[in-house]
């Protein structure tokens, strides 16, 4: 089994990177793995930690219409160059954490994706150099308020709600070149999305090079590489499971968003 690198919060509240063992214990690292973190003698038992998103990116850069059939299902032409947008770090959430359905939207979609984790600062890279900047891979759900996306000329709000970027559950260093990506809803045996990552229009290393020529990528940053055809709407209570060969599966349930109580300061204004 490939090494599975995780980020966890201990029962005492401390954050750690570590290596997930077969018995679900986590052997702790002394630094993030892309910062040359080394294994320590410390371990956390399964009941002593909470799994977080496997990295805390300074930014999440996503790619639209990177599978031809997905572009076609949305009625769009194939892009001549990568179509980029960003999701804020506050959209990132963990495996098994809720996806909150915002009251501003009447149509929220799942989008299963392969996510690339950057391991080294990348600026003005060519493709060969870009390959060395990819530290590993995880799974993402590019959750989208589709009605808002169609209403607005830019996608920041539609793509950027809190909890709209589930990541995880862990990072692996390598995956098969033609790994299958599949998305499942609830208990259905048949996937609603199913494609090979080899079907991407622009490869992960091309994307890293292309993005780095405009935006410096930092260690721990994440690139979402696009979703295949089969995107669809979710409703409250739906469970979304995204599986990628060589990584595992990312699962989240859709919950209503409950408005946080006003702070004391706001209440006094």
Bin the strand percentage.
Answer: 35-45%
Order of helices and strands: EEEEEEHEEEEEHEEHHEEEHEEEEH
Order of strands across the main sheet: 7-6-17-11-12-14-8
Quick one: how many beta strands? 20
Account of the protein in words:
The protein has two domains: 47 residues, Roll (SH3 type barrels); 197 residues, Fumarylacetoacetate hydrolase, domain 2 (Alpha-Beta Complex). The longest helix has 9 residues. The protein contains six helices and 20 strands. The chain is mainly β. Helix 2 packs across helix 5. It starts with a strand and ends with a helix. A hairpin with a 7-residue loop joins strand 15 and strand 16. The C terminus is likely disordered. Strands 7-6-17-11-12-14-8 form a seven-stranded mixed beta sheet. It has a five-stranded antiparallel beta sheet with strand order 4-3-2-1-5, with no helix packed on it. A five-stranded mixed beta sheet has the order 9-20-19-15-16, with no helix packed on it. This is 2-keto-4-pentenoate hydratase/2-oxohepta-3-ene-1,7-dioic acid hydratase (Catechol pathway). Pfam families: FAA_hydrolase, Rv2993c-like_N. Keywords: Metal-binding.
